[in-house]
């Protein structure tokens, strides 16, 4: 269960029990006011009464009010003994209500009383409500913070709405009056008699339906255009060039950026995600002259990454020394994914992102994507681990444009290519559609499909040498002496760059840390299994990749993040805002339930 | 043969479509069928034209023809399906052309065929019997169930629509409907799940065999009842919740699930109560209320639970507010909708109230205290719709079991007036409920008894005793019996006069033992207090003694014989009437026999009779005592003083004391 929708999440509901001492304090108050009656507490959450008349009535209430954002709140009280007369009240009260009275009798206090079955809505006279209750009965009280009503249950049966227009910040309250009355409260530590889950499921479905069927009225045509634009810009942003073109053709919309620009960005991103950062820098400098020169932070980040990739043996500066190693990183099973996080409230998304691979823009299903790849060895993937909802996140595909633009281009010769090169086969294993063909682009958000399993199965079926390769690869710079020397040299250059930047712009702690971390890799015999080894994870490429993409877009005067991501971020913020302003329905309005 | 007038130009285009079906080139025929398909979609006029011009037999021929390509056959089935989607007349014409056997014969796997068949069968104009005439059809359909989701949907829909009688249920059951359809409940397709669920609801309805089988069925290692419970979850579509609740209701009523099972108490009942809420569609509210009424009818505990669930009693009051005043002004469409459902809503509410109040006095009180409840019943009794009248009188009957209500609200609202009116002219089922209610209104403590008597009800009740329906005869004589209880001589005389001795004795030989019991009860009530006994016996003594003899000799239940002996005891209490027994040795022998009977009740009644005969302080008691002593009664009484039953023992001792005094 995830926090908000759950009406009896532990922190909320154990307040009665969990804060044992503070509860005793409440009770001490009762006693110190000099009543003969009072409420004793055993270790069990029993509440015991020995009063005589209405002046002896006393209530206990939970130490914390019901949080509005929980949506639906429920607790049950078992009548262990009705005592002498069974004058028991179960209900709610606001802070400051006189605790020497049964709930319901005073202003901002609401109760259902066992002796007459009446409901008391801030009044000394009750209204006929439900049956009476006595020893052995279990009475439940459910507060619906979406429509601000309350109903009770008796032995698992709903008795219908008792109160409407309830104020916020009410405390669960139980009041007793005559001697020997004992009740036992259950805030979810034991299973409830009433099926509250079922009731919640109804409201979840209601709210979900309300959102899904939200009327857009006259703006139908406009609406469609907006949606198409969102899809289109998203595709363009991530460089899904062919898909974007196809989409634009089908919907008769225009793409702002020109095709070459999209393809260029796509190419650069692929290089970064493949760990070939040196080539990516070169390409950027060539295609967008001045960009990195004006953005020295980015350049430094890229160079640091390049150093890490050299350690990894993936950067082309060290790859050229090795015959076999280029494949190695491609067989890395846990290919990173695009995992934009909308808001910090979604552990599910976060974890799902970790093992799901990138989404490619290939429109064909994964295993059939026999594409000609101009960049053999380009691996998949990027992932943003930024927690800001507005962060730019994107994935990169390893499928080339030819897949889509030339769907009929000789399958047979592509197949031969596949056999010819291990790395190409592995690329295929990592081809995934981004779901554009079948659905909206929302799928891209958080690859929920289990790529890893597919990948591993694919690897297994490929069989020959892949596993071996991945072992062999785990040597510094691919195990090549010349490459190692090149790396050391590059490290010195990097150090120089840092010093130069310090001179120009002053000291930069982030840079220093980055550099230290990168160099630390060399201190370990097995960099992959060392405290700073995480840097070698291909998923770490995603951050820098998205930063580079955003920088390029910005330099072209294009938005640095797609409107779709803005919309998701905005929706997430809205839900959080609803929670802050105590709107009960927010607990059932979840952005991720609309992201499939 | 119909007389058809079609405008010539319409006929011409339509005829062209039909003509092309006869083209020698199969390719052209196919194209013709495809064109026809496109022409008829959504065009009822075109459909009618084509039917009149004889397209159907030709399409059926092409469909059945072995030489037809599968593509052609599929297109033919689609066109036929499209024609069936039209008006009821279209369906009639299709059925007249024997479309059903044609579609059923072989080659059914085409889902278009099944679709067409489905459309034909779910039409109200198609006789459901057509599904059962050929015994090979159902096994064939069963075998097609595994084919695809489409076939599953269509076939289960056909089954659920065509299962109307216990015989149909048995046929489907015997062909393995349960095992074949159960797996469909977890189909990925909502439509399939829904139709399968509907099948189970019609199969289980009032069917013990099916219900008992269903409880043990496992679907994917889960008990069927649990599958139904899951389908009742609140986030499921309403239709599914309601139908699943029906299944469990029927299984419960058939005795397959206990009424205190949590799946009934905590799931089915609350689900049905939810269906009655204002948020639901009018149709759903009607079905929900009717199903709930049926579920709890025999179980007072369920009635008690329902009465406190979600303010059900108050919620039902809303059923009487249609059409609402708002709808009349603002929205004609809605007014129409409301009007159409108003009767159904009212009768459903009355039924549910009747069920709720059938046992528990507190619930009855709660119902009568609901806003305008008695007024609503009173006006319901005189509504034009028979269904509403019947439900209203059922509700009234249920409430009339309350002594308190009879004394108060029933009298205050003079419910006897519309009730009497209802009795004048109504179908039998209404009469049964109305007369049964009248019986309660005629109980001696009911303040309505007097005005009812004055309204000349006796004739009416007497005519009921002549009805062919045993239920009506029972109610008629029962009401007379209640009326005669502690009545004055005038009323008793009127009853005897109106009923006529002949009818009275005919009723004493009625094949229905209930009628006999109530008639004896009437006699007993007539023969109470000494002057009345003597008066009745002086005029009808001979016949009554005859009837009593006959009953005591005949094969009757203990209760009947006991009642008869009680009548004898009453007769023995009369002044002059006594002699009718004393002079009848046959009867005396019978009394003697029953005093020694193995059944204590009969012994007691017989002893009571003797005790009345030998009672001191009455004229001629000495002679009677002597005669009875001679006949050996004293010995028997003596023996009975040793009886183990304290009542019998006391009675015998009291009798013996008469001799001692």
UniProtKB/TrEMBL annotation, chain B:
At the highest ranks, the source species' classification is:
Eukaryota, Metazoa, Chordata, Craniata, Vertebrata
Could you give one GO CC term from the UniProt record?
cytoplasm
Question: What processes in GO biological process is this protein linked to?
Answer: proteasome-mediated ubiquitin-dependent protein catabolic process
Q: Name the SMART domains on file.
A: ARM
PANTHER family of this UniProt entry?
Answer: ARMADILLO REPEAT-CONTAINING PROTEIN 8
Keyword NAD present in the record's keywords: the answer is no
Gene of origin? LOC110520230
Top-level taxonomic group: Eukaryota
Keyword field: Cytoplasm, Nucleus, Repeat
Q: What is its main location?
A: cytoplasm
Q: Which organism is it from?
A: Oncorhynchus mykiss
Q: Say if the entry is tagged with keyword Repeat.
A: yes
Q: Where in the cell is it found?
A: Cytoplasm; Nucleus
Protein's name according to its UniProt entry: Armadillo repeat-containing protein 8
The ARM repeats extend over 54-90, 499-541
């Amino acid at each position: 269960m995830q926090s908000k929708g759950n009406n009896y999440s532990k922190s909320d509901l154990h307040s009665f029990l969990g804060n044992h001492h503070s509860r005793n304090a409440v009770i001490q108050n009762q006693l110190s006011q000099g009543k003969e009656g009072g409420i004793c507490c055993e270790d069990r959450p029993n509440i015991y009464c020995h009063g005589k008349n209405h002046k002896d009535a006393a209530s206990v209430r939970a130490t914390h009010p019901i949080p509005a954002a929980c949506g639906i709140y429920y607790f049950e009280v078992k009548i262990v003994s009705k005592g002498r007369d069974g004058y028991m009240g179960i209900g709610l009260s606001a802070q400051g209500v006189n605790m020497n009275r049964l709930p319901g009798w005073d202003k901002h206090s609401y109760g259902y009383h066992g002796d007459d079955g009446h409901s008391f809505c801030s009044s000394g006279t009750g209204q006929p409500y439900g049956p009476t209750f006595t020893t052995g009965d279990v009475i439940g009280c459910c507060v619906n913070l979406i429509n601000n009503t309350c109903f009770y249950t008796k032995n698992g049966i709903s008795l219908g709405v008792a109160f409407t227009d309830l104020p916020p910040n009410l405390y669960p309250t139980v009041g007793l009056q005559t001697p020997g009355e004992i009740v036992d409260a259950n805030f979810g530590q034991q299973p409830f008699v009433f099926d509250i889950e079922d009731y919640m499921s109804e409201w979840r479905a209601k709210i979900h339906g309300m959102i899904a069927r939200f009327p857009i009225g006259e703006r139908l045509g406009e609406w469609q255009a907006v949606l198409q634009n969102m899809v289109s810009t998203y595709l363009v942003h991530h460089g899904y060039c062919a898909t974007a073109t196809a989409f634009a053709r089908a919907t008769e919309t225009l793409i702002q950026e020109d095709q070459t620009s999209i393809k260029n960005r796509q190419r650069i991103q692929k290089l970064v995600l493949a760990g070939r950062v040196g080539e990516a820098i070169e390409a950027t400098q060539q295609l967008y002259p001045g960009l990195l020169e004006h953005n020295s932070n980015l350049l430094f980040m890229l160079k640091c990454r390049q150093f890490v990739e050299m350690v990894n043996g993936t950067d082309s500066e060290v790859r050229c020394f090795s015959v076999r190693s280029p494949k190695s990183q491609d067989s890395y099973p846990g290919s990173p994914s695009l995992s934009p996080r909308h808001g910090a409230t979604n552990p599910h998304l976060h974890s799902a992102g970790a093992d799901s691979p990138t989404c490619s823009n290939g429109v064909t299903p994964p295993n059939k994507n026999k594409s000609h790849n101009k960049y053999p060895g380009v691996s998949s993937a990027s992932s943003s681990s930024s927690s800001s909802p507005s962060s730019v996140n994107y994935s990169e595909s390893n499928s080339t444009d030819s897949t889509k633009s030339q769907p009929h281009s000789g399958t047979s010769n592509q197949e031969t290519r596949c056999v010819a090169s291990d790395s190409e086969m592995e690329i295929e294993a990592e081809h995934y559609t981004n779901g554009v063909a079948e659905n909206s682009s929302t799928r891209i958000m958080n690859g929920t499909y289990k790529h890893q399993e597919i990948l591993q199965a694919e690897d297994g079926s490929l069989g020959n040498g892949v596993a071996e390769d991945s072992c062999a690869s785990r040597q510094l710079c691919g195990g090549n002496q010349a490459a190692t020397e090149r790396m050391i040299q590059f490290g010195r250059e990097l150090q120089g760059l840092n010093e130069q930047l310090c001179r120009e712009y002053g000291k930069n702690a982030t840079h220093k840390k980055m550099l230290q971390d990168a160099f630390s890799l060399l201190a370990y015999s097995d960099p992959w299994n060392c405290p700073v080894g995480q840097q070698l994870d291909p998923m770490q490429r995603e951050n820098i990749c998205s930063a580079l993409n955003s920088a390029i877009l910005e330099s072209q005067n294009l938005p640095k993040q797609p409107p779709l991501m803005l919309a998701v971020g905005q929706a997430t913020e809205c839900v959080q805002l609803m929670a802050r302003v105590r709107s009960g329905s927010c607990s059932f309005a979840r952005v991720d339930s609309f992201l499939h | 043969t119909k007389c058809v007038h079609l405008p010539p130009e319409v006929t011409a285009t339509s005829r062209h479509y039909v003509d092309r079906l006869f083209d020698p080139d199969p390719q052209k025929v196919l194209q013709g069928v495809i064109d026809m398909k496109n022409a008829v979609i959504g065009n009822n006029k075109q459909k009618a034209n084509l039917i009149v011009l004889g397209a159907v037999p030709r399409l059926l021929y092409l469909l059945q023809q072995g030489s037809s390509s599968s593509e052609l056959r599929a297109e033919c089935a689609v066109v036929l399906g499209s024609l069936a989607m039209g008006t009821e007349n279209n369906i009639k014409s299709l059925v007249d052309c024997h479309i059903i056997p044609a579609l059923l014969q072989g080659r059914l796997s085409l889902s278009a065929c099944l679709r067409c068949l489905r459309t034909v069968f779910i039409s109200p104009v198609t006789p459901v019997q057509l599904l059962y005439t050929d015994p090979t059809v159902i096994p064939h359909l069963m075998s097609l169930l595994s084919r695809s989701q489409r076939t599953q949907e269509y076939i289960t829909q056909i089954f659920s629509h065509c299962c109307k009688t216990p015989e149909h249920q048995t046929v489907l059951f015997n062909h393995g409907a349960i095992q074949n359809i159960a797996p469909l409940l977890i189909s990925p397709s909502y439509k399939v799940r829904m139709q399968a669920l509907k099948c189970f609801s019609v199969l289980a309805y009032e069917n013990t065999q099916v219900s008992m089988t269903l409880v043990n069925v496992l679907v994917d290692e889960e008990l069927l009842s649990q599958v139904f419970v899951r389908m009742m979850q609140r986030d499921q579509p309403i239709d599914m919740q309601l139908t699943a609740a029906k299944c469990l209701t029927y299984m419960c009523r058939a005795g397959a699930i206990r009424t205190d099972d949590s799946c009934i108490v905590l799931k089915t009942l609350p689900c049905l109560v939810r269906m009655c809420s204002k948020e639901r569609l009018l149709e759903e509210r009607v079905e929900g209320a009717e199903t709930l009424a049926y579920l709890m009818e025999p179980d007072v505990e369920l009635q008690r639970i329902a009465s406190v669930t979600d303010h059900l009693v108050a919620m039902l009051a809303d059923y009487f507010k249609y059409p609402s005043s708002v709808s009349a002004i603002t929205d004609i469409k809605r007014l129409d909708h409301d009007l159409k459902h108003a009767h159904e809503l009212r009768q459903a509410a009355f039924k549910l109230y009747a069920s709720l109040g059938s046992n528990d006095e507190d619930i009855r009180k709660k119902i009568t205290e609901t806003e305008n409840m008695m007024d609503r019943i009173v006006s319901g009794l005189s509504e034009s719709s028979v269904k509403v009248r019947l439900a209203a009188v059922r509700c009234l009957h249920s409430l009339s079991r309350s002594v308190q209500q009879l004394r108060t609200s029933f009298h205050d609202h003079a419910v006897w007036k519309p009730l009497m009116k209802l009795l004048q002219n109504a179908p039998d089922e209404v009469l049964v409920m109305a007369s049964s209610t009248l019986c309660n209104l005629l109980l001696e403590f009911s303040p309505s008894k007097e005005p009812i008597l004055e309204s000349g009800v006796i004739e009416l009740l007497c005519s009921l005793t002549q009805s062919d329906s045993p239920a009506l005869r029972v109610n008629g004589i029962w009401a007379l019996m209640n009326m005669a209880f502690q009545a004055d001589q005038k009323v008793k005389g009127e009853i005897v006069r109106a009923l006529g001795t002949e009818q009275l004795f005919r009723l004493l030989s009625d094949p229905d033992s209930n009628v006999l019991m109530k008639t004896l009860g009437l006699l007993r009530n007539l023969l109470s207090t000494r002057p009345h006994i003597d008066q009745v016996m002086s005029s009808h003594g001979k016949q009554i003694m005859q009837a009593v003899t006959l009953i005591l000799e005949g094969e009757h239940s203990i209760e009947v014989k006991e009642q008869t002996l009680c009548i004898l005891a009453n007769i023995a209490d009369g002044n002059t009437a006594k002699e009718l027994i004393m002079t009848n040795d046959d009867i005396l022998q019978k009394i003697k026999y029953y005093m020694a009977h193995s059944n204590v009740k009969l012994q007691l009644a017989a002893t009571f009779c003797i005790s009345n005969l030998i009672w001191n302080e009455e004229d001629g008691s000495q002679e009677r005592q002597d005669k009875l002593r001679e006949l050996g009664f004293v010995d028997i009484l003596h023996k009975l003083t040793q009886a183990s039953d304290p009542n019998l023992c006391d009675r015998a001792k009291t009798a013996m004391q008469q001799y001692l005094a």
